[in-house]
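Supplementary notes for students who missed Thursday's class. We covered one full example, reproduced here. Read the sequence, then the structure, then the short commentary at the end.
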Amino acid sequence: MTETFQILIADDHPLVRGALKQSLSTELDNVTVYEAGSLFEALEQIEAHKGDIDLVLLDLHMPGMNGFTGLFTLRASYPDIPVSIVSASQELPVVRRSIEYGASAFVPKSAPVDQIGLAVKTVLDGGMWMPDWAREAMENGPADDEATGLAEKIGQLTPQQLRVLNMLTEGKLNKQIAYELDVTEATVKAHVSAILRKLSVHSRTQAVIIARELQLQEPAIDA
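Structure (token representation):
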């Protein structure tokens, strides 16, 4: 009996989701595809199909992602579900940071259907995938110690602490964060204290500076 794979495509462009869905249907014998247009919708879909999602194809530039913060949030919330970044960005630092920050693959949106299929199959088999040019550059180039160090620090945060940090970068006050998360201000203060400790900083401003290292510029063409 052929195994059925359940894959979530999280991208805010319906045409991109449609193209990826068609690619998956072409390359995999038996696949069920779910769709989301924002990080919030992606988390909702994973929760609705808890335990069933085999892979998430994630766009870095959709609403709610806030750069790589969304990737960290997804990995912290559901560490057993592999994530493949599918992005219009093809700069080596973006590829490197995606892998450093927990993605199992990086697939350019411009990749041909067979490459998308190969990437997905590789991750479903427990491997990692990226374009040959990126792999060669990462293997032969210097290590990105800054990205590794940042990944270790941010990786210590819980999903709720990541949400609080995200809101801090938006300039929100404790009472605003408490209202949006439906918790007390005392709880928010406790989260902020834990964030400062785990990031080895002494102020909210310093924490925000670190968090902004996770930001991304929009690609010139995000198709």
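Commentary. Residues 145-217 form a domain with the Arc Repressor Mutant, subunit A fold (CATH 1.10.10.10). The CA atoms of residues 8 and 34 lie 5 Å apart. If anything here is unclear, bring it to office hours.
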